[in-house]
Amino acid sequence: GQVFHGEHLPGGALLNHHGRLLLLAAVALAALASLGARGRRWAPLLVAADLLLLSPVPWPWPVASAEPPGVLRCADPPCLADLAPGALLPLPVAGPGVHFQRPLLDQRFHLRPLPISPNRPGLRGRTPSERWLAALAFPDPPDPPDPFEPPPGVGVILVREPWVDRVAAVLGPPDRRAPDSAAWSVGEAGVSAGGGEAAPARGMLAP
What is the pLDDT of residues 130-151, one digit of tens each? Predict the structure, then answer.
C-alpha cells in the first residue's frame, strides 16, 4: 500500500501531533462551510445554536487557570532565582490527571529551561532516580532511589500537592514551601566552569 509522507509538504515536519493536523482540518472545514452558507441569513443562528445546545463542551468554556504554583508567586520574576542555577524540573510530569504541558505556561515566572518534552509526558532519563520521578503520580511508583541523583542539568525540583510529602521523604525539607507546592535546590548542575550559567542541555526547553 501507499504511505502518506507529510514531511515532504511545506511545513509538514511540524505535523508531529494529531492536534495540529486537526487544526488545519478545522480551518479547511470552516472555509467550506462559509461557501455553503453564502447568502443564507439563518446560517449564523444555526452555528450559534449548535455551539450552545449540541456542543459537548459546556458553557462557559473551561479554561486553565493562569495562576502559577505558590512557590512561583513573587513580586519580581524570575522567581526562585536565589536557588541553584540550572533547569527547573516540574513534578509530576505524567500520570492520572496530570497535564504535562502545564509547566510551559508556568515557565514565564521562573525563566529556566525545562527538561521535558512538549509533545509527550514523562522524562527521557533511564536512571533509578529519573524513573522514580517520572512515576511519582502513578498509584504504584517504584521504590525511592538510594542515593538520589537529580537529572543532569537540573538545579531546582518543583513539586505540586499532593505529592510534596512523597518527595520530601527522599529529598528532605524543601527550600521553598507554599500551601500548594514546594521547591528543592538540588545542586549546581547548571553552573559552567567559568562560574556563569551553562547553556541548556540538549532536549531542554529554553524560556
Answer: 999 999 999 888 888 889 999 9
